[in-house]
Write a structure and sequence with these properties.
It contains two helices and two strands. It is mainly α. Strands 1-2 form a two-stranded parallel ribbon. The chain is extended and about 45 Å long. This is Zinc-binding alcohol dehydrogenase family protein.
Amino acid sequence: MLFDNITIRLLGSDDFPAEAKQQAATDLTAAAADGALSITIDEPVPLDQAARAHDLVDRGTRSRILLAVPD
């Protein structure tokens, strides 16, 4: 990146007004409903195996990891 003269600017949700965040949520929801956005989700990990879920994330999985919380 240094040799290509690339600048990365990181923004957090605090940097945007509530209206912009609401619009982003609406747009992302619509894109997902239209099939333009896909998110890979692995099988839920039982809550009592939360440490294993952390290990999956630490290993750099590209899927989303969900914890299954019992009723």
